[in-house]
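Training component of the fellowship. As part of building independent skills, the fellow (R.M.) carried out the full modelling exercise for a liganded target. The chosen ligand was glutathione. The inputs are recorded below so that the supervisory panel can assess the work.
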Amino acid sequence: MDRSCPAVPSFRTQIYPRIYYAVTSRSRFRLGITMTIDLYYLPPSPPCRSVMMLGKHLGVRFNLKVVNVLKGEQLKSSFKKMNPQHTIPTIDDNGFILWESRPIMTYLVMKYAKNDSLYPRDPKQRSVVEHRLYFDIGILYDSIITYHAPVIFGKMDAPPEQCLPPMERAFELLDKYLQDSNFVAGETLTVADFSIASSVSSAKAFGFDIERYDNVATWYERCKKAMEKCGFEEINEAGARVLGSFYKANLKT
Ligand SMILES: N[C@@H](CCC(=O)N[C@@H](CS)C(=O)NCC(=O)O)C(=O)O
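Fellow's submitted model of the complex:
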């Protein structure tokens, strides 16, 4: 009779190494001896700013690698080989390559956070965080960039008028989401606040008046305090100001 049972994984060769890796990589990180993560970025880039602030919040050490997308450096074959979508931010966590700021943020929390508060495990809470991240990429940030990008890239002298109402509508929605909660996905800070704070600070730096939206303005001040130690001023607002200056330099109205 064949006593071997290939369907049952061996504890010594298959299960134990996985447990060992999971435990030691977390411990190494907590002891501050984790390997650094390469972050391909440019300081004014909104999605890069949210990742950088979150990294600082988590205590993750980034090995910063500038990719100047304004000079087309993202189109170099070496970068496109790593990220065929050729976007920043992109991370390389010891061979694990990931791009898109929002999945990068959720990955960093799942792998390196001391608890799950920034990306809750509870299905309902997590779904609200996911909703806000999707709202940001698909509606809020999208409307902000669609309105301002033609001027930033010198394609138009003034922003396209027809793109203003969608941006205002997005801010009205954000204002509603913040009506009964301190942060965008509930009572505590989550990765969605990092993402949306970066979008809102960009709009503000372009000259959009966020004070028209009471809840957004109050939440923005709250984020300033909550993210003070992770670079809200020196990473986020400073970068947004540089982006805003590109826009204002090309604006001819
Ligand atoms: N949804 C992406 C957007 C990334 C993105 O478009 N980044 C810009 C810089 S802000 C970029 O890399 N542009 C260069 C390109 O698309 O070739 C994210 O959140 O990471």
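The panel noted the following from the submitted structure. Residues 45-47, 69, 74, 86-89, 100-101, 137 surround glutathione (CB under 6 Å). The mean pLDDT is 92.
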